[in-house]
Amino acid sequence: MKRSSKPATRKSRSKNVRRAQANNHLRSVISAKQIQKRLHELANQINRDYRGKTLHVVGVLENSFVFTADLIRALKVPVYCYFVRADIRDTAQGGIATREISYTPRVEAAGKDILLVEGILQSGMTMDHLYRYFLGQNPTSVRTVSLIEKTDERKVDVPTDYIGFRATGKFLVGYGLGYQGRYKNLPYIAAVT
């Protein structure tokens, strides 16, 4: 069977995920042990970088909730934890397509050290918008951490301060990442095949 080297579209990914659901075609690509090891390495680095400071961790729902929970438990610095949900709407006004992104609830960042947490960084658009949003509030600092960075899907150049793993091509599920609510409970990351 010949495989295409073209990037998968959203439609083809959905078809692959549905096929995998029906046939349970999931292949582990990052084990639970690898995730925990890398998570503790990231936490140690963040602890060093924020020694003597209070860190305000902002998890981006929905894909970061498991990673954020495990990360804040591994941090030794004082932590405040918040979660925000991105509400993304594509609209057309006067024949011009626009994308509106808003976040709820509002998190005050003025004078705070902010750490934005993503489960998976794909296009970078959501993270870029959030990063700029917090920078506009005059924080002490804004940094980002992502469990997985999908380098081949990046559309926006957003700072990536802490990266757990880099991946390309495959649709990933597990450890908080899911498809239509499924597979988020897997303790590892799996590729849909």
Name of the CATH architecture: 3-Layer(aba) Sandwich
Envelope shape: globular
Which class best fits the helix and strand makeup?
Answer: alpha/beta
CATH topology type: Rossmann fold
Low-confidence stretches: 1-7
End-to-end CA span: 13 Å
Radius of gyration in whole Å, from Cα? 17 Å
- The number of helical elements comes to 4
| CATH class placement | Alpha Beta
Classify the helix fraction into a percent range: 25-40%
Total domains, how many?
A: 1
Report the strand count: 9
The string of secondary-structure elements, in order, is HEHEHEEEHEEEE
Provide the spatial order of strands within the biggest beta sheet: 4-3-2-5-6-7
Largest sheet, described in full? Answer: 6 strands, mixed
Nearest-integer average pLDDT = 86
Which strand-content bin applies to the residues? 25-35%
Give a description of the structure:
- This protein has 4 helices and 9 strands; from the N terminus they run αβαβαβββαββββ.
- It is α/β, with parallel strands linked by helices and 193 residues long.
- It has a 6-stranded mixed β-sheet.
- α2 crosses α3 (65-74).
- The chain is globular, with a radius of gyration of 17 Å.
